[in-house]
């Protein structure tokens, strides 16, 4: 009986290589890997600020509903992207 039988097998870490191999960053998951690889991770703080500004401008229910529609469209696209990523990773495992 080996000593590693009771331990959970760790997965291989994911790495993002940028700037022709100069910068190497670890990613904690597939979504983070894709965000870093595509450069979208640099845009997230901008999007957060943008949505915070939009929410601060809500003065009426009508404006709130328009902001909500925008949020819903963004999150629908994110969910579609995650679903597509899951399908691709399942195909690779099969």
Structural write-up:
It contains 3 helices and 2 strands. The protein is mostly helical and 94 residues long. The chain has 2 domains: 1-42, no CATH class; 47-94, no CATH class. Strands 1-2 form a two-stranded antiparallel ribbon. It is flat and about 50 Å long. It starts with 13 loop residues before the first strand and ends with a helix. The mean pLDDT is 80.
Overall, the morphology is flat
Helix content: 55-70%
Structural class: mainly alpha
- Write down the overall mean pLDDT: 80
Distance between the termini: 30 Å
Counting structural domains, the number is: 2
Q: What quaternary form is this?
A: single chain
SSE order, as H and E?
A: EEHHH
Topology, element by element:
Layout (H helix, E strand, L loop, with lengths): L13 E5 L4 E5 L2 H9 L5 H13 L4 H33 L1
Features:
94 residues, mainly alpha, 2 domains, two-stranded antiparallel sheet, 59% helix, 11% strand
How would you briefly describe this protein structure?
The chain has helices at 30-38, 44-56, 61-93; strands spanning 14-18, 23-27.
């Amino acid at each position: 009986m080996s000593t590693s039988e009771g331990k959970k097998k760790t997965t291989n870490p994911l790495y993002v290589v940028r700037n022709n191999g100069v910068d190497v960053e670890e990613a904690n998951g597939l979504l983070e890997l894709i965000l870093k690889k595509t450069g979208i991770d640099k845009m997230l703080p901008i999007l957060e600020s943008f949505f915070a500004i939009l929410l601060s401008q809500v003065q009426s229910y009508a404006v709130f509903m328009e902001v909500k529609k925008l949020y819903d469209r963004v999150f629908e696209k994110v969910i579609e992207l995650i679903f597509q990523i899951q399908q691709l990773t399942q195909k690779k495992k099969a």
